[in-house]
Design goal:
Blueprint (H helix, E strand, L loop, with lengths): L9 H6 L2 E4 L4 H12 L4 E7 L6 H14 L4 E5 L7 H20 L3 E3 L4 H14 L3 H4 L5 E4 L2 E4 L7 H11 L15 H35 L3 E4 L2 E5 L4 H14 L6 H9 L2 E4 L3 E5 L3 E6 L7 H9 L4 H9 L3 H12 L1
Parallel strand pairs: 1-2, 1-4, 2-3, 4-6
Antiparallel strand pairs: 5-6, 7-8, 8-11, 9-10, 10-11
Helix pairs in contact: 2-7, 5-8, 9-10
């Protein structure tokens, strides 16, 4: 085995302005040094949740690396407490990253997800009852509103990453909470994904590649104008829910199973008080929910176009009515 590891989306990384989500753990530390090795420009961001005494050491390590390699570093300190620590942490983390991205013009957010993470996600979704599109949740590059999430290590196993760090004698930290099997992900990791990866890593990697290809074929095509997302109406419950899930996620909201059922059954509505959805015979729509007083002439024009009522406020406020037909024709015809 070589001393280096494969980085996915290398051309994108070489051309874009990159922000690395750093923690000081095994994966993000390896990614940091691989990016240095490949002469890829990037800065780093780290969140200290104050959950462990060690977290201050990890931030200090991040600062040390930033100084040594002349990287800009962004730090956020947010003490967390139960319940729902994982969910809270994720929301805080991505809100912080997105604020940095918007303020400083980063194009790519780099995360250190790797092959073991991909298998863990697959098994978790399999246990819940999911199709291919939902089960293959991690991709090498995922478009978000205003930036791309890039996962350069997604085809690399944890074992390969650890060997890389040990070969290079690179310091990293271990989060002991990863061994707490009261968390579903850790339970899956210890009992299923880690043993499978130890025995069948090459085959699992090939399978994930095949499944990702199949996912691309099954995914609905989504057009967008600003924060208005549109897909063809498949007139089938599961496909409709899948399309609404993808559009809502791109709009920055993760709907529950119950909310997805409502979205697929109703012609128009609002979920979470934030996201408007609707459907007509041809299309599905998702947009930020906006209450607007719309002039009668414009209301009539939207009614003729069969735009769902809850979507109309956003279209009117952003003056999208004139470009809507063009986008539909170009992207969803």
């Amino acid at each position: 085995m070589t001393n280096s590891l494969e980085l996915l989306e290398l051309e994108r990384l070489q051309k874009g302005k990159n922000l690395l989500a750093f923690s000081g753990g095994v994966d993000s530390t390896a990614l940091f040094f691989l990016l240095i090795e490949k002469n890829i420009s990037f800065d780093i961001a780290i969140v200290n949740y104050k959950l462990r005494p060690q977290s201050d050491e990890e931030v200090a390590y991040a600062k040390e690396l930033a100084t040594r390699y002349n990287k800009r570093i962004f730090i956020k300190e947010v003490p967390l407490s139960p319940p729902s620590i994982e969910e809270k942490a994720r929301k805080i983390r991505y809100r912080f990253f997105e604020e940095i991205i918007q303020k400083y013009g980063y194009e790519n957010l780099l995360t250190a997800h790797q092959l073991n993470d991909q298998l863990e996600w697959f098994l978790m979704q399999l246990a819940k009852g999911a199709g291919v599109v939902e089960a293959i949740g991690l991709e090498p590059a995922s478009q978000r509103e205003g930036y791309v999430v890039v996962r350069p290590l997604l085809h690399t196993s944890k074992e390969e990453i650890l060997r890389f760090l040990e070969k290079k004698d690179i310091l990293y930290y271990i989060d002991n909470s990863n061994y707490d099997t009261s968390f579903v992900r850790n339970f899956i990791r210890k009992n299923f994904s880690d043993p499978l990866m130890q025995k069948f890593a090459p085959g699992i990697k090939r399978s994930m590649d095949y499944l990702l290809h199949d996912k691309k074929l099954l995914e609905p095509k989504i057009a967008s104008i600003k924060k208005l997302f549109i897909a063809k109406n498949p007139h089938e419950k599961m496909q409709t829910q899948r399309a609404f899930l993808m559009m809502a996620k791109r709009a920055g909201y993760l709907p529950s199973t119950k909310q997805l059922a409502i979205m697929s059954e109703q012609k128009s509505g609002v979920i979470g008080g934030k996201i408007a959805f609707g459907q007509n015979e041809r299309n599905l729509f998702v947009a930020p929910f906006m209450k607007q007083s719309i002039p009668k002439k414009m209301r009539e024009a939207m009614r003729r176009k069969k735009i769902p009522p809850t979507i109309r406020g956003y279209i009117y406020s952003e003056n999208l009515i004139d470009t809507l037909d063009r986008v539909l024709e170009k992207n969803l015809s």
